[in-house]
Every structure is written in C-alpha cells, then in structure tokens.
Amino acid sequence: TVGNTAGVLYAISTAGSIAGTLVTAFVLIPSMGVRAILYALGVALLLVSWLLARHTIRVARPAVALTLILVLAVGVAAQTVGISRILLEKDSVYHRIRVHEDASWRYLRFDRSLQGGMLLKDPTISPLRYTDYVHLAWLFTPTIQRMLVVGLGAGSIPKSFLRSYPQVLVDSVELDPMVVDVARQYFAVPEDPRHRIIVQDGRQYVRRTEGLYNVILMDAYFAEGIPFHLVTREFFQQVKAKLTPSGVVVANIVGALGGPNSKLFRAIYKTYASEFTGLYIFPVGFSLGKEEETTRTILLFATQTPGIRRQVLGARLEVLLRGKSLPELVTRSFMHDFYEQSIASGDVPLLTDDYAPVDILPVYGWEPERR
Fold first, then answer.
1. What φ, ψ does residue 203 adopt, rounded to 5°?
2. Is the confidence at residue 178, as pLDDT, over 50?
3. Quick one: CA dihedral 242, 268, 294, 153, positive or negative?
4. Cα separation, 216 vs 269, whole angstroms
5. pLDDT tens profile 33-52
6. Treating both helix axes as pointing N-terminal to C-terminal, what angle do 60-77 and 34-53 enclose, rounded to 10 degrees?
7. How far apart (Å, rounded) are the C-alpha atoms in residues 320 and 164?
8. Strand 296-303 vs strand 243-255: parallel, antiparallel, or unpaired?
9. Cα 189 vs. chain centroid, distance in angstroms?
10. If you average pLDDT over every residue of the chain, what do you get?
C-alpha cells in the first residue's frame, strides 16, 4: 500500500541520516578532516555528473577535465593563507586548528580566530601585544613563585615567564589535548619540572588543585567565544581561594570599555567586582586614540587591594624597569593605557552558574592587536 511504501522509505531515510551523522562525526572527520571530506564529495559529484552526461553531451569530457584541474589547483592554493604557508590544518573535538607561518612569524588559529603565535627567531615572543601586558602582574604582587595559566594556546605567556623569571614555576591547563600537541610540536612549548601541562577543564582543575598561586591568568577562549563557566561568580570564588593573600588574577577579555559592544566586558567586570575589591584595567593600545567604544583586548587585574593610584603603579613600574626585572618589550608606555574611569554596570547582569548569557552578549569585528 501507499502507507507501507511511505513508511519503508521514511525508515530508510531515518536510518541513513543516523548512520551518516555517526560515521561523519566519529570516523570521517577524525580520520580525514573537513577539508578533505569536502574535496572528496566535490570530486565524487563531478565524476557522477560526468558518467551521467558522457553519452549525451560531448563537451562534458573537456569540461570535467578542466574542472578537475581547477579543483587540484584550489587544493594546492589552499595550502597558503595570503603569503603564508600552512603547516597544519586539523579538526579537534573543539576547533579546527590551523598553524601557518610567513617569513617572520608562525601563527595559531582556531577556526577563523587568531589565538597566538611566535617569532621564528625567538619562540618566546608573540605576535600579539597583549601578552606583554601580563607582566604587569608584578605591579600588584611583590612575589611570583607559582603561576597558573588557564588556556595554553600557543604557550606564549608561559614561555616568556619561564625565560624571564628563573624562580617561577608555571602550571598550564588546557582542555583540548590536540592544542597541547600542537603547542609542543610547532611552538616550542616546553614541559619540564618548571612547566607542567595539565589536560583538563580549567574550572575542574582550580576546584581540585592543592596549594596556592601568586598569579592566575585567565586566557581561555573557544574559536569565537568565552566559556561561560569560567566567568561566573561561583568560579571566581574558587579562584580567589587558590590565590595567595597578595596574589593577582589577570584576565584577558575581548570587548569595549563603552558603547554597544561593551556589555560582555562590563558584565565580566561586574562579576569580578563581586569577589575582588581591587580591579585595574589596561586596554591594549588605548592611549593611541582614547576610543572607549573600540573593541580591543583588555587586561583586567583583580586583587584584594583597592585604591592603588596611577602614580604608585607608575613608580613601581619604573623601579622594575630600572632594575631590568621585566622583559624589554614591557615599557613605560604601558602606563598610558591604564584606565581609571568608573565602569557602568547597572544595565548588565552579574554572571552566575544559573545565569551567564555570554553567548548573547556578542563582540563583533575584533582582530587581536599585533606588533
């Protein structure tokens, strides 16, 4: 009957959809990657079209041959990004990871988002400027012996701290094991007695770890977003419990100080303020135009010491620079970016485990500040 036939067709369609989803997710993507799958499907469609048309359209053969040549040319061209060369392109559970380099720099991308990189002549130098600002943690704590980095990426900050401060021990926590492998193989990230790499969710690690840290760096991002459970009040309470009394949290936040794209930053700021009495803001490159509505990288330093004035921070930085205690890329000009204005937070939510709408507080049009 018509009903039986329709039911059989529907069952076959459903079974095919389930099988296609499972095979693609658990077999094809891990073994071939998205790009190879798309190319294979494209070639298969061309071949099928050629077989169907070979007896009816004579021009099909040279057209298909030309098309195949173009596909191969595109495949070769896809190994470059602009004038850079792709070294790796692979899908992990969380991102599409791409490593590419030009004559001077090597870069790490998650999907379309630039995450980090290194100078080929000096792997401790990142192409992204915000990494230098993290060293300003010394302005807020007199001692750094243990540092926790949540979000490894290309490992620029751990490498810089390990080289600059021989007394510092660094623990780096990264959720994606493939990112760890890429950091070791392509970005010269060491793993030794001074640098432990832990493959784990950052929040789980903070909750379970023993001992205290002088500095905790929050630098965990997905391709184009921030994990909500790493910006809630409950998580910041856990972070505070793992800090030494004079410790500091350094948060890398993408956002704006004011205007329509500022809600994400202001919500995160409000949530930090609920647990830390001293918050200090360094928007990267802010002194160049003083544009509050510009989307940029913002370094937020959270401590339990409120009211430290610009003059005091400037004096501390001067002492460190004169004593050559900081890397050469850290300069006096960083103090020009120090932002002392109050942050309006009455119209943004306090982020909690029950309510953290970071996915509906988007930030558009941002590209990291480069050297």
1. -70, -40
2. yes
3. positive
4. 16
5. 566 677 677 877 887 776 77
6. 170
7. 13
8. antiparallel
9. 16
10. 88
Q: Which two tokens stand for residue 371?
A: 């050297």
Q: Are 280 and 303 in contact (CB under 8 A)?
A: yes
Instruction: Based on the fold, state whether residues 297 and 253 are members of the same structural domain.
Output: yes
How many whole angstroms separate alpha carbon 244 and alpha carbon 160? 22
Tokens linked to 190: 């060491």
**In terms of domains, do 65 and 204 share one?**
no
Are residues 271 and 308 both part of a single domain? yes
Distance from C-alpha of 63 to C-alpha of 44, rounded to nearest angstrom: 15
Same domain, 269 and 344: yes
CA distances from 321 to 25, 29, 129, 246 (A): 52, 50, 18, 21
Q: Would you say the pTM of this structure is higher than 0.90?
A: no
Nearest-angstrom CA–CA distance, 345 and 352: 15
| pLDDT recorded at residue 78 | 45
Q: Which residue, 295, 147, 153, is CA-closest to 216?
A: 147
Length of the chain: 371
* Domain extent for 99: 81-114
- Residue 107: enclosing H or E segment and its boundaries? strand 105-110
The label of the residue with tokens 């030794």 reads 192
pLDDT confidence band for 337 (50 / 70 / 90): very high
Both tokens of 365, joined, read: 């049009």
| Domain annotation covers residue 172 | yes
For residue 198, give the nearest of 158, 253, 139 by alpha carbon.
Answer: 158
Distance CA 209, CA 166 (A): 23
Give strand pairing partners of 116: 108
Taking residue 294's Cβ as centre, other Cβ atoms within 10 Å add up to 18
Residue 270 lies in a domain: yes
Read off the pLDDT of residues 238-271 as tens digits, 9 standing for 90 and up. Answer: 999 999 999 999 999 999 999 988 999 999 999 9
How far apart CA 96 and CA 80 sit, in angstroms, is 16
User: Which residues, in sequence order, are bridge partners of residue 297?
Assistant: 254
Phi then psi for residue 215, to 5 deg, are -135, 135
